[in-house]
């Protein structure tokens, strides 16, 4: 980072890359692509061919590493399919429907999985694979409580991104309505 040098890799996706996430406390990161694959990379060895996870039948839109179960990776595709991967074994361990634009595990704990599909945000219990909430509004909860703390209309267009700030109680959302919103 001090010199802003970059390393070009020899093996890349064959189509546009849609998401990139680092595994917690690791140099391992994953990328997803319209080429229907997920690739695992090691930042300390970027010129080595990545491991390729295949199984999606449509463009892979998003992915995320579980914050505690470091071998668990989640990805979703344009066909509304969510896949859970064991990255050590390089196999899909579970599939379900319910996310076509973005997936994000609950920060720190990973007990919940948020997915974005169209104008809806869905919240799943990761352990039981049960849908807890199907939201057309953005709902923010206090991390220590089960009760909703704030409900607001989210966006007029498709929600394509959600991110939390590790430095404060902020959530950012991005949409096809050309807006980025910060929620506190």
UniProtKB/TrEMBL annotation:
Gene3D superfamilies: YVTN repeat-like/Quinoprotein amine dehydrogenase
Keywords on record: Repeat, WD repeat
Domain of life: Eukaryota
Pfam family, one: WD40
Bilayer-crossing regions: none
InterPro entries reported for this sequence: LEUNIG-like, WD40/YVTN_repeat-like_dom_sf, WD40_repeat_CS, WD40_repeat_dom_sf, WD40_rpt
WD repeat residues: 10-42, 53-95, 152-184
Record PANTHER family: TRANSCRIPTIONAL COREPRESSOR LEUNIG-LIKE (PTHR44376:SF8), TRANSCRIPTIONAL REGULATOR OF FILAMENTOUS GROWTH FLO8 (PTHR44376)
Name of the protein in question: Uncharacterized protein
């Amino acid at each position: 980072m001090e010199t802003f040098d970059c390393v070009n890799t020899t093996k890349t996706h064959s189509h546009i890359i849609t998401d990139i996430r680092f595994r917690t406390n690791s140099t391992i990161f994953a990328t997803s692509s319209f080429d229907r694959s997920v690739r695992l990379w090691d930042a300390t060895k970027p010129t080595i061919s990545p491991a390729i996870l295949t199984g999606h039948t449509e463009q892979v839109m998003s992915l995320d590493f579980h914050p505690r179960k470091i071998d668990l990776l989640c990805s979703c595709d344009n066909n509304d399919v969510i896949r859970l991967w064991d990255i050590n074994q390089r196999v899909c361990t579970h599939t379900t429907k319910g996310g076509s634009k973005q997936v994000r595990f609950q920060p720190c704990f990973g007990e919940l999985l948020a997915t974005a599909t169209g104008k809806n945000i869905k919240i799943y219990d990761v352990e039981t694979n049960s849908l807890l909430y199907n939201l057309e509004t953005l709902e923010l909860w206090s991390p220590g409580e089960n009760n909703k703390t704030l409900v607001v209309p989210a966006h007029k267009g498709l929600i394509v991104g959600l991110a939390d700030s590790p430095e404060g109680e902020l959530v950012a959302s991005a949409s096809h309505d050309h807006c980025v919103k910060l929620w506190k």
